[in-house]
Amino acid sequence: MKRRITSLFALLALGGCVTVPTGPSVKVLPTRGKSFETFMKEDATCRQWANSQVGSPVQETYDKNVATSAVVGTAVGTGVGAVLGSASGNTGAGAAIGAATGLLFGAAAGSGSAQVYGAQAQRQYDNAYVQCMYTYNNQVPGTATVAARPVAPPPARVVTPPPPEAAPPVMAPPPPPPPERIVPPPPEEYEAEPPEFVYSPRLDAYVAVGVPYELVYTGNEYYYFSGGNWYRGAYYNGPWSYVPRSAYPPVFVRYEVVNIRHYRDVEYRRYVRDRGHYDGRVYRPQYRRVVRHRPGY
User: Fold this and answer.
1) Omega of the bond prior to 239 within 30 degrees of 0, cis?
2) How far apart are CA 68 and CA 113, in angstroms?
3) What whole-number distance in Å separates Cα of residue 133 and Cα of residue 20?
4) What's the rounded Cα separation, in Å, for the pair 76 and 99?
5) Rounded to the nearest 5°, which phi and psi values hold at 259?
6) What is the pTM of this model?
7) What does the pLDDT read at residue 89?
8) Shortest CA distance to 252 belongs to which of 280, 226, 218, 281?
9) How many CA atoms lie less than 13 Å away from 290 in the CB half-sphere?
10) Which residues of the chain fall short of a pLDDT of 70?
């Protein structure tokens, strides 16, 4: 009996050493020319993103599987041991032996199930991490490394002899006039129900969710992304006016559109998972009807 209990503790000790995804098991390298500080920031962001995709903590699930299997194994072993012990005239000893045996095998079964879950969680973690790092144009497993373009040597310095003293100075032609700036036409106003906005702490702005376009609310104006340009409006559905890059709000100076989409999706998944206990901020503007005037009226 004492030897079986010693074996049980050894099995539980080994089971507690199951590896859980505390980080990626794949190797991702920065592209040439990217600073180490930028790469570390992207790595931290993608680790956080991968953790959010795994779901509940793997160690917690592992402990639940081991505990559940141990309890069930103990109960079954106690019953079987009591029946066998009563046949030999020693019910108590039979029940004790059956309980220890059931606990031993139940713990082993729970540990094996938890190990399988841990491996699945690691694969899910690695997939999410690789996808995130790929959006930052890093070198991920299975993709071709972009070779750097060879740098051409500097041209040889040519020493131009001075012109003859009698030659008149050569006047440079005037520079051509700058090209006329072409302002793209703004998108049309659209008739639609107001979308829901969630606040992204990373962007320090509200982003529309559940819609197939990028719409950002900074607190006093709406910004709509269309045709590679940002447009500004007082309402969620227009009217819109073109925003030059020199007039961008801070969020568009710090982040490109692909980064805005990424942080929007991260916050939206937090909101969808548990809307009743979501601790972020949500905003929905009032409905605005678009009135279109027919020609001649």
Assistant:
1) yes
2) 11
3) 21
4) 8
5) -70, -40
6) 0.40
7) 62
8) 218
9) 15
10) 1-20, 55-117, 143-152, 164, 166-169, 180-181, 293-297
